[in-house]
Amino acid sequence: MQPAIRVANLAKSFGPVRAVRGIDLSVQPGEAFCFLGPNGAGKSTAINMMLGLSRPDTGEISVFGHAPDSRAARILTGYTAQDSDFPANLKVGELLEMVRRHYPDPRPASELLEQFGLDALQDRFAGGLSGGQRRRLGLAMAFAGNGRLVFLDEPTTGLDSSARKAFWDYATRFRDSGGALLITTHHLEEIETIADHICLINHGRIQIEGGVDEIRARLGQKFVHFNAPELPDLSPVTEVSEENGRFEVMTPDADALVRALVQSGVTFHDLEIRSASLEQAIDELTRMEGAQ
User: For 192-213, what is each residue's pLDDT tens digit?
Assistant: First the structure.
């Protein structure tokens, strides 16, 4: 199957700054690929090259087998930036139609207006939209062309909880229908259910890569939570935090730690054992790799 995106040995420098340092990645149709990284990690530079907005110094990029700046690639691609700005004197319906006309087989305007909660706003001037309304319009425009690859940069910024849920439901249906998503976000709890592949870039290099369960398994730790008047001497313990008498203990062996807790004689209650969240796993793996 032809990858939606294939990147090989991609590199880009700005003067003495090496923004991207030889990364390789592949995004498949029907996959939600989450491209993560701190500010200044090289993420935006890499995405601009994948979108054909910037040329690499070295390396290769293809979008469904085409050069990323070609018409063949662009009619298969949608994109919404983190900060969407629209001409203030154009209406929501006019902006949506303007984008649709750039594609040979766009999604129906009525579908987009309904899916993104814009029905009542189609005659509203863009200059009068709230931040959340602008975000919904930007997302609708990203899917308007009926492309098979959509880049989503911080897609839920400014959305309320119901709009976020509606968007992720729509994005999941798009992925399940064979569409490819490349998502950047700092809200890792939102992508745990949709992410098929995680790629963390830092200092221009890919630092962590794999599926959500694979990344959690790499950490190999559990989190034991309980309330107690004091923390007894427990083992094995990797890390401990406490807030208002509730302890969170990271351990490679939750069973052994709970046995030690019971045998300590300390009164405790509300015991809970959890696997690491995606955010906890990435933070800890990043810290561990940075310490090497």
Answer: 889 999 999 988 999 889 988 8
